[in-house]
Amino acid sequence: MRKKNDFLFTKDKTRFYFPWMCWLLVFIGTFICGGGMLVYNSLSSWQKGVSESLTVQINTYDEEGRDRGDLVGMDIEKALSILRTTPGVIGASVLTEEQMNELMAPWIGADVAINSLPIPKLIDVAVDPENPPFLEQLKMDLSVHVPAATMDSHRIWLAKLIKLSNHILQFIIFILGLLALTISFTVIYTTRSTLKIHESIIKLVHMMGAKDFFITNRYAFYNSKHAFVGSALGTICALPLLWVVILFFQRTSDTVLQTQFSLIQWGILAGIPIIVALLSFITTFKTVLSYLRRFL
User: Fold this and answer.
1) pLDDT score recorded for residue 2
2) Does pTM top 0.70 for this prediction?
3) Which of 59, 176, 181, 195 fits 148 for a cystine, CB–CB 3.0-4.6 Å?
4) Do strands 53-58 and 121-127 pair parallel, antiparallel, or not at all (unpaired)?
């Protein structure tokens, strides 16, 4: 049964068009938003891995297997000097023999003498998490002044991946903004169309004493109701597909993505229909009020 306050929309054909547009746009938006959250979670995890610390190795033997002797100590001093003067590095220290024994014990046992093995000297580098160093430049400086030094290559790769992920995240935000604008323009278009359809009724109701707020309020509630229904269906259809994608990545053993959503993130995805309904209400309210003040 039609509510008595919906008399303005008895001939409104857009009530079939508008919810389906919301369904399509929100379906796409929910899926993209979920993908953006996966990228954001992974980005946070990768940044933590890069920002905590890194390791520099000083080879104790040359390529032909000969002991480098006193050159190792000189290389260590040069490497420490470079590291401690690099912006973003808050500390650098050489691992002691006891620390090396503890580090290697799970692989070679506690009874093996570390000094008898061709194991490189390790420098533990503490990194400022708020202002990490430029790893590529640091690696280049070490290679120039200390050729026997090597730095964790996976951190260089991870830093590049973080940079790429930042660009992807910005692109996702841009796409979501375009979808929000598309929904707003759809609301404006359908609202203006219905205003033209019901122009005679609106003028009659206005002459009978209906205030602009009453008419505007009815339009806004009507559109937001249909926007919520269409958006809810879009979200309901998108979430299972998003869950399938998450399960796919979880079964990929070598994935670098963080595939877990927090409760807040699940709440944001579930709350998308409410956000779209509010956007529809505000856009409709402003559109109708502007029309009434201009033509009535």
Assistant:
1) 46
2) no
3) 59
4) antiparallel
DSSP classification of residue 10:
T
Distance between CA atoms of residues 29 and 180, nearest Å = 9
DSSP 71-86: HHHHHHHHHHHHHHTS
- Alpha-helical regions (H) of 146-198: 153-197
Q: What percent of the chain has pLDDT over 70?
A: 77
How does pLDDT run across 223-232, given as a tens digit for each residue? 898 899 999 9
- Please count the CA atoms within 13 angstroms of the CA of 32 that sit on its side-chain side: 19
Cα–Cα distance for residue pair 238/270, rounded to 1 Å: 10
Angle at 245 between CA 243 and CA 247, to 5 degrees: 70
* Mode of pairing for the β-strands spanning 53-58 and 149-151: antiparallel
* 116 DSSP assignment: G
Cα separation, 156 vs 134, in Å, equals 9
Whole-angstrom CA distances from 201 to 5, 136, 147, 190, 206 are: 13, 69, 84, 17, 8
167, two tokens: 């660009």
**Terminus-to-terminus CA distance in the chain, angstroms?**
31
Estimate to the nearest angstrom the gap between the alpha carbon of 1 and the chain centroid. Answer: 44
All structural domains of the chain with their residue ranges:
4-47+161-295, 60-147
Give the CA count within 13 Å in the CB-facing half-sphere of 143. Answer: 9
Where do runs of H (alpha helix) occur along the chain?
Answer: 14-52, 70-84, 97-108, 135-145, 153-197, 199-207, 212-250, 263-270, 272-295
| Long-range Cβ contact pairs of 204-212 (< 8 A, separation 24 or more) | 205/8, 206/292, 206/296, 212/289, 212/292, 212/293, 212/296
Residue-wise pLDDT tens digits, 232-276: 999 999 988 888 888 887 776 455 566 678 888 888 888 999 999
Closest C-alpha among 40, 46, 43, 70 to residue 58 = 70
